[in-house]
Write a structure and sequence with these properties.
alpha/beta; Rossmann fold; eight-stranded mixed sheet; 8 helices; binds S-adenosylmethionine; EC 2.1.1.64
Length: 249
């Protein structure tokens, strides 16, 4: 298939998110797991970015002056805190409704984020580049994972980082992240995730490495029911995150 004919849009997935858009900022609503995830993933991103760019992670705005893309930003649950940490954030999502909700929320919170209803391929084609690309909980919802990851990686500047978070395609993930989360705990609406669309780490690493980036860290993220919180873990069988770095030129 020619590059031009390839698309990252799985319209049924985008429609599903558009239909739930009003709930993005309700911590008890359909995006509850993402709200619960936020403390652990925000600290992880802040610390890795600070380390990479020689910043003090404890400073009030450790990401000051860095240009950051939050691709598949949804309602902006990551974009807003990243902007508060000082980054110049572009929040991009294929769903216009998500972007509308994100813009409204940011205006209410007084946070400046450049929200755009565009695909990753449109941004790359326009020649956009970033110090940091966040690719969080999106790859399991796109049409062409390899293409999507390559496009996102192509926008990372020399010396920059890309974070990818998703759910592994394992039996354990099918049991916990799909069956239990959707049918028993009811954390997510039924049909949020499809087993066939889950992505194994090596399926991300191939296009990342092919784009000239190096995967520098792999970590699992696991829910601790006793503490009622998510923690970093060595176990990558269910939720996991990768960090990749483009060598400085
Ligand atoms: C599970 S949400 C993740 C939201 C956000 N990244 C977070 O972690 O809080 C997935 C988002 O990806 C968006 N999306 C799906 N396919 C996309 C594509 N090809 N390009 C851009 N956004 C896409 C959906 O509209 C949805 O908002």
């Amino acid at each position: 298939m020619s590059e031009q004919a390839r698309t990252t849009i799985d319209q049924a997935q985008v429609d599903r998110f558009s239909a739930m858009a009003a709930e993005w900022w309700d911590p008890k609503g359909k995006f509850r797991p993402l709200h619960k995830f936020n403390p652990v993933r925000l600290a992880y991103i802040r610390d890795r970015v600070s380390e990479n760019f020689g910043r003090d992670a404890k400073a009030p705005q450790p990401l000051k002056g860095l240009r950051l893309l939050d691709i598949g930003c949804g309602g902006g649950l990551l974009s807003e805190p990243m902007a508060r940490m000082g980054a110049d954030v572009v929040g991009a999502d294929a769903s216009e409704k998500n972007i509308m909700i994100a813009k409204t929320h940011a205006a209410g919170s007084g946070v400046a984020v450049d929200y755009r209803a565009v695909t990753a391929e449109a941004l790359a084609q326009a020649g956009e580049t970033f110090d940091v690309v966040l690719n969080m909980e999106v790859v399991e919802h796109v049409a062409d994972v390899e293409f999507f990851v390559s496009i996102c990686a192509s926008m990372v500047r020399p010396g920059g980082l890309m974070f990818v978070a998703t759910i592994n395609r394992t039996i354990k993930a099918a049991a916990l992240a799909i069956f239990a989360a959707e049918n028993v705990l009811r954390w997510l609406p039924r049909g949020t995730h499809q087993y066939e669309k889950l992505v194994r780490p090596e399926e991300l690493e191939k296009p990342i490495e092919a784009s000239g980036m190096t995967v520098t860290e792999r970590t699992g993220v696991f829910f601790n029911p006793l503490a009622n919180q998510w923690n970093l873990s060595k176990d990558m069988d269910v939720n996991y995150m990768l960090v990749a770095r483009r060598p400085a030129s």
